[in-house]
Design brief:
By secondary structure, the chain is mainly α. The protein contains six helices and three strands. The chain has helices spanning about 5-15, 20-25, 35-45, 60-70, 70-85, 90-125; strands spanning about 125-130, 135-140, 150. It has a three-stranded antiparallel beta sheet, with no helix packed on it. Strand 1 and strand 2 (about 135-140) form a beta hairpin. The chain is elongated.
Length: about 180
């Protein structure tokens, strides 16, 4: 395959994993020495930060409605209606109390879990080593841009979708 056709195919298929390293670097306008700080800033402005979009936070009402929407709660509500229709008001009241308690506890736990996850996300910051201006520097995960040369070592978290240029005894743990 000639070089221009290979570049066109690479752009169309995003087959970065099978393309020769030189082709990938050329397409990303990068080098084995990495980007310059200026190039990295320009790409950060162009592509935005390296982060997943955050989902919209659910309100307290949405969390409660989610709790009421599960099958266990539905069965209890049907049992309360049947009990009430059979004239067993005390049983129906007890079942409704169970629904309210279950919904309250479930909603409170879910809300706390969301708050804890948000708090943990604010305090946990991943930094990675990249090549910038020909030197190894540590940058925040959010500041990695297309064309950065990321240096991985044992125990590192892979900070983005990357194309391996070289490796020595590479092993991964995807857990």
């Amino acid at each position: 395959m000639d070089k221009p056709a290979q570049k066109d195919q690479l752009q169309e298929t995003n087959a970065w994993h099978v393309a020769p390293t030189s082709t990938v670097l050329e397409q990303l306008k990068s080098t084995r020495a990495g980007l310059t700080s200026t190039d990295a800033e320009d790409r950060l402005s162009q592509y935005g930060q390296n982060q997943l979009p955050e989902g919209k936070r659910r309100s307290g009402v949405q969390i409660i409605l989610g709790q009421l929407g599960n099958s266990f709660t539905f069965i209890l509500l049907v049992a309360a209606i049947v009990s009430l229709s059979l004239g067993h008001g005390l049983d129906a009241g007890f079942i409704m109390a169970v629904v309210v308690i279950n919904t309250t506890i479930g909603a409170a736990q879910e809300w706390r879990a969301e708050m804890n996850a948000a708090s943990l996300k604010k305090t946990f910051q991943v930094r990675s080593m990249v090549q910038r201006d020909g030197q190894k520097v540590h940058v925040s995960l959010e500041d990695i841009v297309p064309g950065d040369i990321v240096m991985l070592e044992s125990g590192n978290v892979v900070p983005a979708d990357i194309r391996l240029l070289s490796d020595t005894d590479l092993r991964t743990d995807e857990s």
